[in-house]
Amino acid sequence: MIPVEVGVQSPRVVHFTEDNNEKGLRCILDLVEELRDKAAIRVAAYQQRVSRYYNKKVSPRPLRQGDLVLRNSAMADPTGTRGKLAPSWQGPYKIKRVLRPGTFKLETLGGREIGRAWNAEHLRKYYQ
Questions:
Q1: Does the structure show a pLDDT above 70 at 82?
Q2: What confidence category does residue 112 fall into, taking pLDDT thresholds of 50, 70 and 90?
Q3: Contact 107, 126 (CB under 8 A)
Q4: What percent of the chain has pLDDT over 70?
Q5: Ranges of each domain in the chain
Q6: What sign does the CA torsion over 113, 114, 119, 124 have?
Q7: DSSP letter at 122?
Q8: Is the Cβ–Cβ distance between 61 and 103 less than 8 Å?
Q9: How far, in Å, CA of 25 to CA of 35, rounded?
Q10: Which domain of life is it from (predicted)?
């Protein structure tokens, strides 16, 4: 109860009976599984809508082993010590191998392997 209901009786307080409350709670308990199922259906439908909307705007980056790419220099130097007039992309680098879809190991054109793996989000295809 809120403090106002102590002094002024509301319909909720006036019509409250322990038996009706108990019956109502038992009815809701019987419907819990059905309510959970409805909620799960709504969540699945929402996730499908979001997925469709997102996938409409995503353009695939078909990168394969041996392709030349540029890497994002902001990701290459996360300390942020480069100036604002520094180039945004570094490279070209060659894709040495594909670790899994969207993740690549790079090497310089001289053949030296880059230490970490790179996500396709931070790479851009290099055209000569």
A1: yes
A2: very high
A3: no
A4: 98
A5: 3-57, 68-125
A6: negative
A7: G
A8: no
A9: 14
A10: Eukaryota
**What distance in Å separates the CA atoms of residue 67 and residue 125, rounded to the nearest whole number?**
7
Report yes or no: 28 and 56 within 8 Å, Cβ to Cβ.
no
Q: 68-125 belongs to which CATH class?
A: mainly beta
End-to-end CA distance of the chain: 74
**pLDDT tens for residues 6-16?**
777 777 777 77
Distance CA 32, CA 29 (A): 5
For the chain, state the CA radius of gyration: 30
- Predicted confidence at residue 104, as pLDDT, reads 94
Instruction: State mean pLDDT over 56-71.
Output: 87
Residue 123 pairs in a beta bridge with 71
- Give me the residue label for tokens 């695939």: 60
| Confidence at 1, pLDDT banded by 50, 70, 90 | low
Q: Are 103 and 120 in contact (CB under 8 A)?
A: yes
